[in-house]
Write a structure and sequence with these properties.
Blueprint lengths: L1 H22 L5 H7 L2 H9 L15 H13 L9 H13 L11 H22 L5 E2 L13 E2 L14
Antiparallel strand pairs: 1-2
Helix pairs in contact: 1-3, 1-5, 1-6, 4-6, 5-6
């Protein structure tokens, strides 16, 4: 789950660079590579008008919510509580850039939820990148029933098909 999370984050970074730097030219290559951290790069991607992907910890992810609480307790006073993306990036950084002093002990369940959320972000980012405008089954949904689908988040409510309003 740790390496799967890291791989999904790498995929998000590739999509973000391709879309925001090469295609849309919202950032210069220099600004992107030297001034922005991975979390800021991915956050810029997921919050594009063409994406509008919710980056909160999903309600059904109690284990990842515990990570957010643990990170908030360990942070400096007054630091912002990490959202789902922030948790995924922090967890990924602890694995990809380990140090002896900063080792966060996380359970497999926490890693499994982080992996599911990271892959969810990547799936939606790819669908947005190719301008998909239909429905999908979100891997993070509490509803696991066969056939359950949702509209992609970047479709405006007035543009949604009548059956899904």
């Amino acid at each position: 789950a740790e390496l799967g999370t890291a791989a999904a984050v790498s995929g998000l970074l590739l999509v973000a660079f391709s879309w925001l730097v090469e295609d849309k030219r919202l950032f210069s290559r220099t600004a992107w590579e030297k001034k922005m951290e991975a979390e800021s790069q991915i956050r810029a991607l997921l919050q594009l008008d063409e994406c509008r992907i919710d980056i909160a910890v999903p309600a059904a992810f109690a284990n990842l919510a515990a990570v957010a609480e643990q990170l908030a307790a360990d942070a400096q006073p007054g630091a912002a509580v990490r959202d789902g993306l922030g948790c995924v990036i922090k967890m990924r950084n602890d694995v990809v850039h380990p140090t002896r002093k900063k080792r966060t002990k996380l359970s497999y369940y926490q890693w499994a939820e982080a992996h599911s959320l990271a892959v969810h972000f990547l799936e939606l980012a790819l669908l947005a990148y190719v301008r998909y405008r239909g429905q999908f089954h979100p891997r993070i949904a509490a509803n696991r029933w066969l056939g359950y689908v949702e509209d992609v988040p970047w479709i405006a409510p007035e543009d949604r098909p009548a059956a899904s309003k």
